[in-house]
Amino acid sequence: MIEAPYIGSLKAGPLGTIADVAGVTVGHCTLDQRAVQTGVTVIRPHQGDVYRSKVPAAASVINGFGKSIGLVQVDELGVLETPIALTNTFGVGTVANAQIRHAIEANSSIGREWPTVNPLVFECNDGYLNDIQALAVQEAHFVRALQACGEEFERGSVGAGRGMSCFELKGGIGSASRVSDVAGRSFTTGALVLANFGRLSMLTLGGVALGRTLSAAEGHKAEKGSIIMIIATDAPLDARQLRRLSMRATAGLARTGSVYGHGSGDLSLAFTTAYTVPHLDDFIEVPALVSDSRLDPLFQAAADSVEQAIVDALFSAVSVTGRDGHRRLSIKDITTS
């Protein structure tokens, strides 16, 4: 049986997940009903009201074959206003509505005396295993995932990852963390991925081209699917620096064998918990930021944690049978069969 490799030389945090970044929590709502194999995953950057205490953030579009919502304003203003939600492609609008309702319930001035709220929803297409045309994801599923948020959370075939495939195996939710030293100070960087991409022949684990031994010749089959990569850090960075950090997700993704194919939606977002941006204040207090010349340890932590999170998604997943009898085996099942 193949074991999950440990990526890089940096140490992981105590949990080995994105929740090692203080304040970050994750929750799932999983739909597992025959042809319906899907769900919602929510990442809370802190336990407060994200609209009132916005979180510095930035995103990178590596390959834009995707239907996410909210990225335009994140790019313009450099902050998050809601928890981050992950779901299937056809569930984006419904989950965005749920985010809006949740924000309005907590802040009745939204859209009236105050500006509107920017919901942030990422997606991958789980239509191979899930009957995506059933439009099974409902607003209540976002609420359940939000309520389930905690430091301890499942990975693999859960939440938004329930119906996802990765390298033609079972994919889904994966997470990891790394601790790095920056000028004598220790910072934690964590990643959570929704892995739904890749061809089996390309699969590379810890530098080993495992996919070549697991797959037969496959001609010119297209790489279809997507991956969403969320990076959290407690290092004090501004939105410009966070965009640079988000780009380092590509290093971790590429190491696993992805070439960001035409039909693959590859998106990353990075945020910091080092400070928040108050909604109503006239001036913002920002801590001393990490100098650009000192960012390399954080770049390494981001790349390693993303790669490890993809490995985690593969090794945490269980085999799933869904729509029309379609089945994806977990990497553990395929390597022991």
Automatic annotation (TrEMBL):
Q: Keywords in alphabetical order, please.
A: Aminopeptidase, Hydrolase, Protease
What GO molecular functions are on record for this protein? aminopeptidase activity
The record ties this protein, via Pfam families, to: Peptidase_S58 (PF03576)
Q: Which InterPro entries match?
A: ArgJ-like_dom_sf (IPR016117), Peptidase_S58_DmpA (IPR005321)
The record's similarity note reads: Belongs to the peptidase S58 family.
Identify the PANTHER family for this entry. Answer: BLR5678 PROTEIN, D-AMINOPEPTIDASE
Q: What is this protein called?
A: Aminopeptidase
Give the source species. Answer: Caballeronia terrestris
